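Listing S7. Sequence submitted for prediction.
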Amino acid sequence: FSSGTSRNGNATMAITYTVQEPEEYANRKLRDTMSLQPQALFNLFNVMGALGEDVQELKNGKFQIVPENYIGRTVVVSTRLEEYEGRERARIRRVQHADSWEEVTSF
């Protein structure tokens, strides 16, 4: 986790994931930058729930992100390929709890 600001000066949170599977992409990094504007907090809320945090605490606003607490936790990250500056890159679509791996890989 790292905080920052967008081009227009709004607060953002960037999360970097390290790929474990499939093996051909192991140890590559995926970065997801999300807005911290009130109307966009659902993104961060979903990621924190996938990481195992109590969603009720998040809803109550009594929550502080401590980046070190998330190192080594496993989530399922669904991506889509998109073209960016003439190259393909993976863009994060959805982050889910690690228990959903069977569900995600069953189709």
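Caption to Listing S7: primary sequence and predicted structure tokens for the chain studied. The longest strand covers residues 87-97. The beta strands are 2-5, 11-18, 29-35, 75-84, 87-97.
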